[in-house]
Amino acid sequence: MPLLSIPSPSTAWQYFDLTAWLRDAFGWSLPLDFRIHAYAICILLGIVAAVVVTNRRLNARGVERWIIIDIAIWAVPAGIIGGRLFHVFTHVSDYFGPGRDPLSFLYIWEGGLAIFGALILGSVGAWIGCRQVGLRFTAFLDAVAPAMLLAQAFGRLGNYFNHELFGMPTSLPWGLQIESSNAAYPTGLPEGTLFHPTFLYEIIWNVLGFVVIILIDRRFSLQWGRVLALYLIWYGLGRSFLESIRVDTSETFFGIRTNVWASFAAILLGLIIFWIQSKRHTGKEPSPYLPGRGPRANSDVDSDDTYSEHGDDAPLAADSEPVATAADRS
Predict the structure, then answer these.
(1) What 8-state DSSP symbol labels residue 246?
(2) Which of 115, 190, 242, 271 has its CA 20 to 30 A from that of 207?
(3) pLDDT by residue (tens digit) across 189-213?
(4) For residue 137, what are the CA distances in angstroms to 57, 124, 144, 223, 310?
(5) Does the pLDDT value for residue 11 go beyond 50?
(6) What is the DSSP letter of 285?
């Protein structure tokens, strides 16, 4: 008996119908009929977790509370777009060709977000947000890096509800049972075959990485983008292995899946960033804010007091003495 079993698409596990729940639980009758997919809920939970953790890490560096919201407004939509584009690019045959709906690449609620694409465009959005609020980009990257692993763990839970991204057949006791009607079910395998729950493996790897990177950062106080470098190395190592045992279709180059190449690139980029930043910056960041953009710099010009050279409130020069009046001289 497998420890994990995915229900068939006909069950309600694959989505959460909000209007039906309100009707059954409270007897409310709403003139709306829509569904909230479990995959979307997991993605949203991941975003919330990343925002909360990043906010706390930035606060510990002296950054204003919830400034992360102003950055997330740019980073999250850009990340979602990037994640979708990268997924479609690496699974072209699933969306284009004979018998395919030409608009299916827009159906993001059916699943399909690639973390590497989300990182690329999400970083662009975050850079814009950091420029808007005056935050040093490396300070933000170091704060958000471990939080990304936590967010990705939530996202992988969404893969469970979408019946996707499972691994090769296995006889291990924690093997995953999947309905044979699943589009990704390998041809020729008998019903009841068990598969590696690769999304579960990645959840464990990501949560473990979150803890490890947090502890390393507390021990060594890494800055200048070096926490991000650890994230890229950690995630790249785990993803390069897990990607190689998945059975879902994906574009390949020189016989290697695209996401494996992307994992290798992440590892290499992480090593380069860590080496270069360790050489260039031996000290700590002077401030998480850009020069002249911190809260104190802004507060210096917030005063409503104005002075006139001839007014009664004109301040005395530092080295000047009061001018004697006629009464004083009498």
Answers:
(1) B
(2) 271
(3) 888 899 999 999 999 999 999 999 9
(4) 14, 11, 11, 11, 46
(5) no
(6) -
CB-CB contact of 266 with 236 (8 Å): yes
Among 19-28, 37-46, 93-102, 154-163, the range scoring the smallest mean pLDDT is: 19-28
What pLDDT is recorded for position 27? 66
Pair 69, 45: CB distance under 8 Å: no
| CB-based burial label for 171 (10 Å; 0-12, 13-18, 19+) | exposed
In this prediction, residue 330 carries a pLDDT of 38
Question: Which DSSP symbol is given to 35?
Answer: -
At a CB cut-off of 8 Å and minimum separation 6, what does 314 contact?
Answer: 307, 308
* pLDDT number for residue 311: 43
- Tokens of residue 28, six digits: 């409310």
Q: What is the pTM of this model?
A: 0.80
H or E stretch at 238: helix 226-244
CB 284 within 8 A of CB 221: yes
Nearest alpha-carbon partner for 288 in 105, 17, 59, 28 = 59
Residue for token pair 């409310």: 28
The H or E element spanning position 252 is strand 252-253
CB 198 within 8 A of CB 212: no
User: What does the DSSP assignment read for 161-190?
Assistant: HTT---BSB--STTPEE--TTSTTSPTTPP
Contact 113, 155 (CB under 8 A): yes
